[in-house]
């Protein structure tokens, strides 16, 4: 019987070596006894395998390699599937968050519009209640002014009026003829805002706001000029 020397087979385990030994023993017509520990210790060489057994040994080795490759492929596929699932979940979560944020913004904008509309409606009602009286207190005059301008401009307007007339809508400068809350000169200028300019603080405030906006951009612009020049 011809014999072939095979070198370089790495034995994966003592069990695999035992199997190879059994195959060799059967092919040689002798008992299948193999020293697994000795074979495992010298895992780089398996000598004198009978030719008839070589194909079986190679088949066993290739089968093991195929199993290992299949296991690695399965592991890689599992990792890829897990990563794809993680990305998909993250994208879904982000999409839901974006949609929720957009909805919240829409609702907030709607609330602001509703509140602004209610505020304007309330302002018109309050102003209507104040206008048309025969006389006005300083508090009532200031309340009218607050209703007629942006909140961040009232203090600047108030600073000017406090210096010019002390919030007296009938204040008259005997020397110059300036009249009213904003001391228009002459007072008759305020007729452009209403024929009741002498007795209605709302008309005087309207005219004063138009003047400050046209000449200085805003009441606060007018107040900055007044501070530097003591007039506006």
From TrEMBL:
Residues 66-127 are annotated as: Disordered. It holds the Pfam family SLT. Residues 151-221 form the Transglycosylase SLT domain. It comes from the Bacteria. The lineage of its organism: Bacteria, Bacillati, Actinomycetota, Actinomycetes, Kitasatosporales. InterPro entries: Lysozyme-like_dom_sf (IPR023346), Transglycosylase_SLT_dom_1 (IPR008258). Residues 1-22 form the signal peptide. Residues 66-83 have a biased composition (Low complexity). This is Transglycosylase SLT domain-containing protein. Residues 84-117 have a biased composition (Basic and acidic residues). Keywords: Signal.
């Amino acid at each position: 019987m011809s014999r072939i020397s095979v070198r370089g087979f790495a034995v994966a385990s003592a069990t695999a070596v035992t199997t190879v030994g059994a195959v060799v023993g059967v092919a040689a017509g002798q008992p299948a006894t193999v020293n697994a520990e000795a074979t495992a210790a010298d895992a780089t060489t398996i000598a004198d395998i009978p030719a008839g057994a070589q194909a079986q040994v190679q088949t066993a080795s290739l089968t093991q390699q195929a199993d290992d490759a299949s296991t690695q492929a399965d592991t890689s596929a599992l990792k890829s599937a897990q990563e794809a699932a993680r990305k998909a979940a993250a994208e879904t979560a982000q999409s839901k968050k974006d949609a929720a944020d957009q909805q919240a913004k829409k609702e907030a904008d709607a609330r602001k519009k509703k509140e602004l509309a209610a505020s304007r409606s309330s302002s018109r009602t309050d102003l209507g209640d104040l206008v048309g009286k025969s006389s006005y207190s300083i508090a009532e005059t200031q309340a009218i002014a607050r209703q007629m301008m942006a909140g961040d401009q009232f203090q600047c307007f108030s600073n000017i009026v406090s210096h010019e007339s002390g919030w007296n809508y009938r204040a008259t400068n005997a020397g110059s003829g300036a009249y009213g809350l904003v001391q228009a000169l002459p007072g008759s200028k305020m007729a452009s805002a209403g024929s009741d300019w002498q007795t209605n603080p709302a008309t005087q405030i309207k005219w004063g706001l138009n003047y400050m906006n046209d000449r200085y951009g805003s009441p606060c612009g007018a107040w900055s000029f007044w501070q530097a020049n003591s007039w506006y």
